[in-house]
Amino acid sequence: MEFSFPYAPYEIQSNLMREIKQCIEEEKVGIFESPTGTGKTLSVICATMTWLEEFEKNREDDLLRESRIVDEVDEEDWIAAHRRKLELKRIKDEAYEKLKALEKVKDKLEDAKSGLIRRNRKRQLCDGADSSEPSTTADCDVPEDYLSEDEFDTGTEESLEVVKIFYASRTHSQLDQLLDELKKTRFSPRIVTAVSRQTLCTNEIVRRLKHSHLINEKCMELRKGFTKEEKAANSDGRTNSTVIKESASKCPYYKSDAIEELSNEILANTLSRPNEVVERGKQLMACPYFSTRLSLPLCQLVLLPYQVR
Q1: pLDDT digits over 6-16, tens only?
Q2: CB neighbours of 42 closer than 8 A, spacing ≥ 6?
Q3: CB distance 103 to 95 below 8 Å
Q4: Could you report how far apart the first and last alpha carbons of the chain are, in Å?
Q5: 63, 97, 296, 304: which has the fewest Cβ within 10 Å?
Q6: 169 CB contacts (<8 Å, ≥6 apart)?
Q7: Could you tell me if 233 and 252 are in contact, meaning their C-beta atoms sit under 8 angstroms apart?
Q8: Residue 245 near residue 254 (C-beta atoms within 8 A)
Q9: 271 lies in the same domain as 200
Q10: Cβ contacts of 245 within 8 Å, gap of 6 or more
Q11: Taking a C-beta distance cutoff of 8 angstroms, is the pair 17, 3 a contact?
Q12: Residue 220: which domain range?
């Protein structure tokens, strides 16, 4: 079928998918309306995923063609010939760099999948070990190498950005509906749900604060390893000053290896819903919020509620 619709589409669905795809191809803004029960979600998925597949294939083909350009020109005017030769070299060099970036993306995704396989095998070996033998828990657990705020750097992944489709919805249940509909299709994009720190945080000390600004502030304190304390009021009633003190406590979920492992599971398409990421984060002692941030640059489909901050 033209859009890989899971069953024979009605005319209204075919028309909607064609209009959506054309709108994207022409880089326009589209506002579409369709009656209730006409399969809008499935139509949107099939139209956008079909476009994305075609776009990525065509882009790679174009880059391969441009990288093989022969920078020889047939010009009598040597100035024009030199200018043309420089232009061809620029196109060729840019195409080559973009192809290298695409290869890095493929390598990163392959590493994520293979790393997940190795980790699962290691866990199976640990789980199957004879209980009478010396404990190997330390070998099986994620190393507790804590990150500082400065050390959390997504620069490498951000430089490997891929084309994304953003799907925004008013409620989380509507995002869940899209994931359910996506399972009916042959498409398997890399998915991440971008929700707030308040939704993804697994640290009970932080979660009990409820308000987002307090959560963000406490999260930063635990990541940097400091706490804020107010000095006692002066006798003249002046405003209290704030003292920054080193804290012995750090967030137990803010660990580089664990965060990367959880991020790899997101990229490997084993986790797509926030509750799945949170539960897995608790098991790995990994921060779901920063794992989501780390995986986001390489995901193709980003789901988010309108009010996400």
Answers
A1: 999 999 999 99
A2: 5, 6, 13, 181, 184, 185
A3: no
A4: 39
A5: 97
A6: 175, 178, 303, 304, 305, 306
A7: no
A8: no
A9: yes
A10: 226, 227, 228, 229
A11: yes
A12: 205-233+240-246
Interval 207-222 mean pLDDT: 89
Is the pLDDT score of 34 beyond 90? no
Residue 243: C-alpha distances to residues 229, 240, 246 (Å)? 5, 10, 10
Sign of CA dihedral 52, 53, 59, 62: negative
Q: Where are the alpha helices (DSSP H) in the chain?
A: 11-25, 40-67, 78-127, 137-140, 155-158, 172-182, 197-200, 204-207, 212-224, 256-267, 274-284, 288-295
Local confidence band at 237 (pLDDT 50, 70, 90 cut-offs):
low
**Statement to judge: residues 199 and 289 lie in one domain:** yes
The structure tokens listed for 224 are: 């940097």
Q: Which two tokens stand for residue 299?
A: 């995901």
Q: Please tell me the predicted confidence (pLDDT) of residue 271.
A: 84
* Number of compact structural domains in the chain: 2
Domain annotation covers residue 27: no
CA-to-CA distance for 158 and 169, rounded, in angstroms? 25
What torsion do the CA atoms of 185, 187, 192, 194 make, to the nearest 10 degrees? -60
The verdict on 156 and 194 lying in the same domain is yes
- One domain, residues 213 and 179: no
* Amino acid (one-letter) located at 75: E
Helix (H, G, I), strand (E, B) or coil at 296: helix
In contact, 45 and 169? CB cutoff 8 Å: no
Band of residue 231 on the pLDDT scale cut at 50, 70, 90:
very low
Closest to 199 (Cα-Cα) out of 279, 93, 80:
279
- pLDDT at position 90, please? 83
Q: Is the pLDDT of residue 134 over 80?
A: no
Instruction: Kindly state the percentage of the chain with pLDDT values over 70.
Output: 74
